[in-house]
Amino acid sequence: MSKRFVAIWFRHLKTDWFIRRQPQLKNAPFVLASPDHGRIVISAANIKAETLGVYAGMVVADARAMISSLQVLDDKPALSNKLLTGIAEWCIRFTPAVAIDEPDGLILHVTGCAHLWGGEEKYLREIGNRLAAFGYDNRVAMADTIGTAWGIARFGQGPLIIEPGQQTAALLSLPAAALRIEPIIVERLEKLGLGQVNNFINIPGPSLRRRFGPQLLQRINQALGQEEEWITPVQPIELYQERLPCMEPIVTATGIEIALTRLLDTLCQRLKQEQKGLRSASFKGYRMDGKIEKIEIGTNRPSCNAIHLFKLFENKIDSIEPALGIELFTLEALKLEDLTNVQENLWENNGGLGDTGLSELLDRIAGKIGAASINRYIPDEHYWPERSYRIAASVNEKLQTVWRIGRPRPLQMLSRPQPIEVTAPIPDYPPMMFRYKGKLHKIIKADGPERIEQEWWLQNGQHRDYYYVEDEAGKRFWLFRSGHYDAAKSYQWFIHGFFA
Predict the structure, then answer these.
(1) pTM > 0.90: yes or no
(2) Which domains does the chain have, with CATH numbers?
């Protein structure tokens, strides 16, 4: 299949934009102007002004002499680029590859796209009509090459769709300027009577290069498809993106779900074939009014399970506002990882952290309460209890050390030990009673001490002697004394945790 390109030419780009913002200008002659070497020169004129003989490059004083009612507005620097960028991003609904062609055009790489609109004629008509509805005067042409499409859009008098392989015939009747060459080269060609492409297209290449420079020959070869030409899209084309144009605007949640299901099935089938799974994905809906609705999901492990991924998106579909309707849906895999097959043991009931069901459960919980609310804790290589664990970087992070399970640890541990008042015999006996938050607890059972030193290379300080105690109400606590008993009573008791 040959490549197909669309060129869009906005004949009055900047003035059309001013009319959109100030509708009262529509039927009035006006121009945009800017200072140039001490003069005010016209940079753009609207259709009304052009029909009265005003054109870009004319001095404002001369134009006002011709049209007394002419309105002169200040031109805005970089306005063309800003407008073209915005329109190009809107045109992504027609193809993922849209490039700016300054100062007044766009280039679309549309290979394989037209059939989604029912053929090239309907495709081009849809693009032109939609842009015209926004108020932009435009011409849209399609051909096998960028150069031919560009020339036809600006200078073509016949059909705006050039059939595959017919670019040479389409170019013959066009003026030399249709090849996108410098004005000085166009002027030299016209002086020699070579004003049309058919006058010089058959001249040997070395002769053209020697007389007019390399640009003319390059542009001819590009327009004829003999030399490759690329565009730089305003948004990079994602390798793992699926698109679903809609013949009729979608306004219901059911329609959105159907579109999402189809895109997920297509993308997941492709990922399975390439042994990849997505870690994050973005689902976008391009609305009729030009706005884009977007929802995103993430997974703990790479996944290409379409049913599971749909459930993650399903919780967020209600946040999509279709307004007048969504005409294009896209699904993009933002982050991918290689998918590894996990060997399951049929004789074991528990799958551990590698269990796919656990990973999918965590994904669904994260979709409802946020991934930041889910943490996995793993052992760290420190002695003090509050330093002996840390939050894992991921669910699948491997342990660098083992959990210390030789002595019991409380289910609930305070992030910082709290000081308490303790009555205890000496030396090294468990406490008899303690007061915590104003309440007195009488201890009836106790075990200990368990001495835990701190790392000398981190900080200097006293050791801790931990005790497991139970009060008269059956509640159990984890207490410790910091340092040895001494006559000056420099030691201090703390509560550090609670057992179930």
Answers:
(1) no
(2) 1-28+69-237 (3.30.70.270), 241-338 (3.30.1490.100), 412-498 (no CATH)
